């Protein structure tokens, strides 16, 4: 593969595309969404067969994929995401006249996006990373995930077709197949200006290191894994043990546990240890193992369990008698908080439907847990209002450890909207200042540029005096349209 | 020095300070500004004697320092910088009810700030980095610059005094003295959550690498140097040769050339080579060398010139006969674009009043220059409107190489306002997505956090339904107050 050619074509496309209107970008995104919907009948069975995910789940994921494309189309057509700011000149100012300065966000340049195996549509070829990068004005060099090659190529062709249909330049999107070495070559290319990745800590960390060792380091947005702890407080849990155990097990085993927000840790007060353990056992025992994405992932799941089985501190609440070549039989172990606190291994993500139930004695121990937790995408806390009030200090610590904190429900099921934050402190992501889901994901692919005393006729529309785009802007410090 | 104790105290202060109201933060900042102004009579001669900068310059810098503190006070008191976003619940939504999600920016945690030698006030102890971090809610562990130790300590005491006077926690600000090893220890401490630095490429890059090698990598905002090219186009230059030569030389030699936006490169069309060279020579010959910040900086300046003097491609337009122990005698050399394009050394910053005049033959050569330029804080282009129109392609490339592009005036003199972008593509800064001057500097020290289904009474004021702060928020996708 001639990467030089691919990147040069992308750079060429970039210089044209960065100045394209929000309307043209929105039409392009809408066309991608249309092409995906039109190909639904082929795409759903194909993605299902390549991922082992049931067609119902893929149908939902396709809807989500189309929905998030439309969200970005809406965002760029409206245009206020550009953060336009105008400080007018003051020629009379002393001791020196004040210049006219106008600032907005401009696209970074061609970016490299990696597909994820667990969402063959929503976090893959036309997933949130690709689409938010295109929306920002960045051409995408996309490395397809080898677990779903046909789905990836098919969706890639739908993006290319959309670009052609809309008369946009070649090189806005390039689909590349290959392994780890190919991904590394892409990240190292001098024209690449950012990287987006969803996957394992090991994979994300290695790309992060590679990107920082370049002559010109570039940002890496890696979403790397999280155990998404659920903290239960005494009264709330006590009055709902069975319902909460059911909700928890359902979230744990959804999609064979292959979600980045899968809850792999649950903290339970000692007083409810037996009742909650029993309720969980009752819920989990009838769950039939579901096929995982591929055999390699199933193998890794059982290897992680085998490693944990050698740890004497763990008491196993549920585990299938035999390992499976493809299915993830759910598993759960229990541990005293005092032992959990001593061993980092118990915080490592096991990709699949496995969780550790941590029994804590009192609020002091729970505070120690909160302080010890690694960075997470999400943390959930189930408590009565009065308990939450008493736990203010603990909650304050938990906030430091996550990107999203939930007070009801379960962490799986990530809303695509304006307020979503899907990105937490390290090591859950490489950059807690960013989100890979929701409207703000577009900001990852832009940087500010200021124009000083630029003649009005050369200014981008977003910064022209008359505000032809009708967007929200900060003018001399005031927010206005 | 017991760093453990310092960081623990800062972390303790952080957990309290992050929830402090914008009003309390603003009062604290205003008190710092007040204390600095009240100490003016001591501070100005002290900073002047330690930096060799004239009292007039220090007086201006003090005004700027106070002005930027007040800008951040205004920003946090108003509160819209928090980027509050609310997506309301929809319990009726199918197939699953929609949760209530609210997002805003929260402070990163304790941060390490390094002082700069060339701005003993505005980029030092109570400079833009410290003040924007405090405004965001981050305690600051500040490493004073050894070039102005007494100024640094005095300003540090004024910040501490402001915290005490306003009843704020110990540990919000700590002043530390020491060399490179001390700075490295601070950056490596696990409690540190970000680093801000202004100085040399070598210094910034080493902190960037160190921060990325931590178990938990943290963002480094390093402003590292730039040659701030000025591009002149034929007609504009031809009709103003003497005035533009004067403006250029004045910017080049201002403050002994010790500004990060000092213009170290100027591109001139061949047709004006002789006239512009003559005009520059005439302007520069009478400029008396001014004392640099310290002898080490003067030594480095002359060493850089000696290195360049060995380059045969350079023709020297002006150079003092002898090197000086402390004063920066201005110097200028001339080169053909064709030779300039071949050698990276000619793009390296020489800290002081030295510039290279690059003679280009035609638009094609100018385009090659634009493509070859390293990342810059600023690029200035002087052209008639009709010339700018013809140079659209060149300007498009120049935009990719800088954080601020000027169409009038000179790059020195950085406005502190809402629209300022002082941060450009690598290697001018380590993070082109950030600015170290102006209102947006505060965003460097915050990250988003989302609250899902949090009971109203526990929500931060910025996210409460009734909008008690009266700030601009995105509610269900619409901007409103």
UniProtKB/TrEMBL annotation, chains A, B:
Domain called Aldehyde dehydrogenase: residue spans: 3-388
Keyword Glycoprotein among UniProt keywords: no
InterPro entries linked: Ald_DH/histidinol_DH, Ald_DH_C, Ald_DH_N, Aldehyde_DH_dom, Aldehyde_DH_Superfamily, ALDH_KGSADH
Keyword terms: Oxidoreductase
Superkingdom of origin: Bacteria
Entry-linked Gene3D superfamilies: Aldehyde Dehydrogenase, Chain A, domain 1 (3.40.605.10), Aldehyde Dehydrogenase, Chain A, domain 2 (3.40.309.10)
CDD domains, A to Z: ALDH_KGSADH
Keyword rRNA-binding tagged: no
Name of the molecule in the record: Aldehyde dehydrogenase (NADP(+))
């Amino acid at each position: 593969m001639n990467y030089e050619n691919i990147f040069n074509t992308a750079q060429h496309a970039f210089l044209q595309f960065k100045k394209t209107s929000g309307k043209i970008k929105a039409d392009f995104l809408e066309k991608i969404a249309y092409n995906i919907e039109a190909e639904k009948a082929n795409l759903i069975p194909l993605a299902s067969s390549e991922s082992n995910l049931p067609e119902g789940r893929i149908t939902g994921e396709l809807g989500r994929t189309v929905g998030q494309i439309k969200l970005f189309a809406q965002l760029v057509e409206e245009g206020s995401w550009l953060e336009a700011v105008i400080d007018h000149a003051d020629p009379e100012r002393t001791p020196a006249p004040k210049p006219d300065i106008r600032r907005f966000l401009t696209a970074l340049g061609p970016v490299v996006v990696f597909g994820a195996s667990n969402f063959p549509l929503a976090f893959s070829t036309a997933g949130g990373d690709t689409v938010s990068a295109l929306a920002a004005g960045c051409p995408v060099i996309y490395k397809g995930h080898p677990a779903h090659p046909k789905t990836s190529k098919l969706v890639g062709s739908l993006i290319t077709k959309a670009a052609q249909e809309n008369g946009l330049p070649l090189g806005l999107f390039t689909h590349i197949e290959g392994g780890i070495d190919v991904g590394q070559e892409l990240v190292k290319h001098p024209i690449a200006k950012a990287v987006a990745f969803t996957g394992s800590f090991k994979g994300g960390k290695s790309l992060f290191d590679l990107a920082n060792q370049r002559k010109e380091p570039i940002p890496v947005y890696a979403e790397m894994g999280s155990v998404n702890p659920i903290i239960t407080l005494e009264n709330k849990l006590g009055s709902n043990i069975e319902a909460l155990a059911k909700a928890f097990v359902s979230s744990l085993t959804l999609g064979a546990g292959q979600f980045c927000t899968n809850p792999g840790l649950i903290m339970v007060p000692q007083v409810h240890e037996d009742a909650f353990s029993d309720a969980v056992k009752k819920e989990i025992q009838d769950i039939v193992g579901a096929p995982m994405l591929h055999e390699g992932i199933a193998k890794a799941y059982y290897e992680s369990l085998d490693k944990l089985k050698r740890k004497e501190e763990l008491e196993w609440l549920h585990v299938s008698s035999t390992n499976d070549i493809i299915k993830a039989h759910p598993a759960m172990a229990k541990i005293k908080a005092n032992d959990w606190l001593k061993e980092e291994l118990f915080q490592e993500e096991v990709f699949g439907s496995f969780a550790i139930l941590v029994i804590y004695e009192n609020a002091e121990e729970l505070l120690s847990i909160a302080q010890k937790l690694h960075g997470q995408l999400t943390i959930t806390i189930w408590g009565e209002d009065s308990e939450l009030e008493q736990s203010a200090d603990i909650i304050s610590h938990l906030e430091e450890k996550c990107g999203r904190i939930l007070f009801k429900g379960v962490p799986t099921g990530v809303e695509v909207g304006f307020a979503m934050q899907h990105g937490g402190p390290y090591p859950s992501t490489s950059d807690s200042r960013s989100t890979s889901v929701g409207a703000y994901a577009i900001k990852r692919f832009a940087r500010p540029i200021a124009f000083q005393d630029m003649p009005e006729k050369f200014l981008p529309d977003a910064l022209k005096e008359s505000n032809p785009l009708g967007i929200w802007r900060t003018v001399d410090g005031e927010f206005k349209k």
